[in-house]
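Need a sequence for this fold. Nothing fancy.
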């Protein structure tokens, strides 16, 4: 990818009786002082790869933004330098560093900081009765609202399930239904997933629906039920039951209350993940979970060793196309196929959890 470089404009030469360029020696105007660079050096933050401009931007921001901890009313830089008790200060400085390197604007960097660390951004989400994967008492809870006909939900699904595997015993994934009005097969697919859940086969049906996203007609859904060996009479009854409709409407209402604008909508321990602010979804989500565990005083599970010759890909996956933006409720679906997931049976969530993909980074300027 080539980056656009702006060339400075050329000055036109005046030739009316002049044989050379006039100098400034006769001018009494003082030369402007060069911009003073804000110098900030923090232990644990390596700024050596930044350009001078990037270093100024980062230094200014860590000197302006307050510590993430309400009981530590100093800026991030001071918090890190003085080794204050707020454990989130150093990760906040590192996050801002990454955002600067990724070419984010000042507002985008601030948005990323508040998304990740602002205590006022945390919401309590009721998860009781929703299908889940992972232990109900896991320290990290991921809640996702998704539409089975949404192509971006299909792409995100293996990343989220990968986090449950990567941090085995430490992450719980909760699924909520939000069939978009523009997707004619979204609600029938959601009904099929609920009907399968009633027979202990939610995740198996979940995977089949995403794997066959372009085949969600009624005959296709019946075939998936047969493949999973579901009781056909009960399955058909649950497809059209008032209880199934009520479950979908309950999830949709909750999503609208927290401001859903499109799918997938993802919360991690009560914080909404703005996918537009992620550069590499797989790695960024893995880093998010790892930091949450550390801030909770937990030791994250070590990453499994890579097989010899394996490519350098995060355990939770990072192959989501960078240009995949979260669609609004009226967006038109795109095609494609989804990776297969595991066949774990669903459990109802035991309690309330505390509780697009990224745009390309902008070119870096010197």
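Here you go.
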């Amino acid at each position: 990818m080539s980056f656009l470089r702006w060339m400075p404009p050329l000055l036109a030469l005046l030739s009316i009786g002049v044989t050379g360029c006039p100098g400034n020696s006769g001018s009494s105007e003082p030369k402007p002082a060069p911009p003073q660079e804000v110098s900030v050096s923090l232990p644990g933050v390596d700024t050596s790869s930044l350009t001078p401009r990037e270093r100024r931007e980062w230094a200014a921001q860590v000197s302006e933004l307050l510590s993430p901890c309400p009981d530590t009313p100093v800026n991030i830089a001071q918090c890190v330098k003085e080794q204050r008790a707020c454990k989130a200060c150093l990760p906040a400085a590192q996050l801002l560093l990454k955002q600067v390197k990724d070419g984010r604007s000042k507002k985008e960097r601030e948005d990323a900081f508040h998304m990740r660390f602002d205590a006022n951004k945390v919401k309590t989400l009721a998860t009781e009765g929703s299908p889940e994967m992972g232990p109900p008492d896991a320290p990290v809870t991921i809640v996702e609202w998704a539409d089975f006909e949404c192509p971006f939900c299909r792409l995100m699904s293996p990343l989220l399930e990968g986090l449950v595997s990567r941090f085995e015993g430490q992450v719980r994934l909760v699924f909520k239904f939000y069939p978009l009005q523009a997707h004619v097969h979204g609600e029938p697919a959601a009904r099929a997933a609920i009907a399968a859940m009633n027979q202990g086969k939610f995740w198996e049906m979940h995977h089949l629906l995403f794997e066959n996203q372009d085949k969600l007609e009624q005959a296709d859904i019946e075939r998936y039920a047969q493949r999973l060996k579901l009781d056909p009479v009960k399955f058909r009854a649950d497809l059209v039951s008032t209880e199934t409709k009520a479950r979908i409407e309950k999830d949709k209402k909750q999503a609208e209350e927290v401001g859903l604008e499109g799918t997938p909508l993802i919360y991690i321990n009560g914080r909404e993940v703005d996918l537009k602010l992620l550069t590499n979804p797989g790695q960024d989500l893995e880093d998010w979970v790892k930091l949450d565990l550390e801030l909770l005083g937990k030791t994250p599970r070590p990453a499994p060793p890579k097989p010899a010759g394996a490519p350098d890909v995060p355990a939770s996956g990072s192959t989501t196309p960078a240009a995949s933006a979260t669609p609004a409720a009226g967006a038109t679906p795109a095609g494609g196929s989804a990776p297969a997931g595991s066949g774990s049976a669903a459990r109802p969530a035991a309690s309330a959890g505390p509780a697009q993909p990224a745009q390309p980074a902008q070119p870096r300027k010197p």
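For context: The longest helix spans residues 151-166.
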